[in-house]
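// run 5 | inverse folding | seed 20
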């Protein structure tokens, strides 16, 4: 069950890089869990990358933005920076102890990344 929202009406967004690698899937699934269990809303990194003004404006206007990347390539971070989003927190799945190309997607691993991301709120 989702926790009670204690955000006080703040706009909080997570932009995961879903990538093609196992750690990208882990970033995506963890971001979805974060969105389900907290006040943080899942947003579309592709929308920012496509230069869609509404996504960029939402990111710039949010009280908290989390860029959740699977690997050190850091596509979420770089996409936000390229489109002028300056204020955000960044987490890489590989910094949580997972290795690109060698990570099994399990509920336990999703929960581990979720807990790291939740600490950024």
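// decoded
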């Amino acid at each position: 069950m989702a926790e009670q929202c204690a955000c006080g009406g703040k706009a909080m967004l997570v932009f995961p890089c879903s990538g093609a690698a196992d750690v990208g899937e882990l970033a995506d699934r963890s971001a979805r869990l974060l969105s389900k269990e907290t006040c943080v809303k899942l947003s579309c990194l592709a929308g920012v990358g496509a230069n869609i003004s509404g996504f960029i404006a939402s990111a710039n206007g949010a009280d908290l933005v989390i860029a959740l990347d699977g690997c050190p390539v850091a596509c979420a971070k770089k996409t936000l920076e390229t489109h002028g989003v300056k204020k955000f927190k960044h987490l890489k799945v590989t910094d949580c102890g997972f290795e690109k190309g060698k990570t099994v997607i399990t509920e336990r691993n999703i929960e581990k990344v979720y807990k790291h991301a939740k600490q950024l709120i």
